[in-house]
Amino acid sequence: MLSLNDISPILECIVSFIEEGVIIADMKGKVLYHNPAAAQLLDQPVDRPITSLNTIGRFNFKKRLLQAAIRAGNADAAGRPSGKFVRFEAKIGAHNGTRVIEFNSGLVTLGDGSEQLRLVLLSDRTEHARLQAVLDNNQHPGILTRDPSMQAVLARIHQVANAQAAVLLQGESGTGKTQLARMLHTLSDRSDKPFVEVNCAAIPDTLIESELFGHVKGAFTGATQNRPGRFQAADGGTLFLDEISEVPLHLQAKLLRAIQEQAFEPVGSDRTQHVDIRIVSASNRSLRELVEEDRFRADLYYRLAVIPLQVPPLRERPGDILLLAQHFIEELAKRGYPGDIRIGDEARRVLMNYPWPGNVRELENAIEHGIICAVDKEIRTESLPQDITQYSEQPVPALTEDPEEAERLAIKRALAEANGSRSVAASLLGIDRTTLWRRMNKLGLR
Ligand SMILES: Nc1ncnc2c1ncn2[C@@H]1O[C@H](COP(=O)(O)OP(=O)(O)O)[C@@H](O)[C@H]1O
Ligand SMILES: [Mg+2]
To answer: Which CATH architecture has domain 15-129?
Structure first.
């Protein structure tokens, strides 16, 4: 039988080949040994060995270890990790994107019991985390679209999710800005930190400063105790400032400084607080126009709009109307409404022709109305809300008396609106693709 001493060169060889990272450190965190995999998992250049546990990744190793120990009930009375092995995951920014690394760490006592060393084992959990995110996403379906301009918005959101830069979402009410802001946070490496929403239009001017930055006891009448604000609540995560255009001018300078320097003073206090926050804001009014009218500070606008995204109104993405209508029928079925509901042909046409001033939110409500008022499990025109049916009754100015010519015009218009896509044009017209193809043939439109 070989002794441990004899096989130690073999063990070292094995450790240098395995995919798991191995780090051995002293009790102070000074690294005594690590294998090549550890350097690779931590994205450390080969020529710069890891020297201290306190400088690995971009997170606080000691703090995360203690948190994990406390969670596992392995902290001693003085609040120190007991030394038993505990595990935690951390995100590491690497040259090839963010990696999720699992750490297992505990103390190992050497031979005679006089010395203890810290052993850290690392493994790559990135793929697992990705799969989990996909699964989670399917449970909370986010943004549904087949419209190219909306797909471009989604692609951009994926692209910028991990950046620190501020994102400004502009678009009409109900187009999905709040949903997109949440999606951005979920995709970012801040997803395990808070997403805090502030609707600036819903808070009276006089309270907005204290809502955002908090206040100290006695700062104003009614401030009976210290209260942290939303900036504090969002620390480490994302702060979503909805209807940002409604922030009063006199507060915009303080907001700008808070975003720029990630620092602010609560109302009534002169102690500066520091935070680490990603700002996403939204507006249904054009901030640029407000800047031109001197109603919004230009410097704040540029700070908020590092990545500006325009969310198109529903009427400009006709391909989404019936897709979302069907989606809402399924969603509402989960909430107890009957699921086997069809949308009648005439109602489809009405939905396609309506301009949707309230966008997706209005469509969602219209479908709920339609299901409640369905006839024989079919949403008919008369099942839809009055605003929509009345709109469809407005006479369309007749361009021609000739029905064939009228149809030819309608098809041409639909094709133009659909950028030449026949399936989108067909859904715009409320007919299927083969019917469109047949009629185009008949009318000599090829
Ligand atoms: N593309 C989409 N797919 C599925 N649901 C959507 C989509 N866009 C918006 N919604 C839903 O429509 C409603 C309005 O969206 P929201 O994000 O609140 O709009 P906004 O913030 O622009 O007013 C929400 O219930 C949202 O879940
Ligand atoms: Mg919103």
So the answer is: 2-Layer Sandwich (3.30)
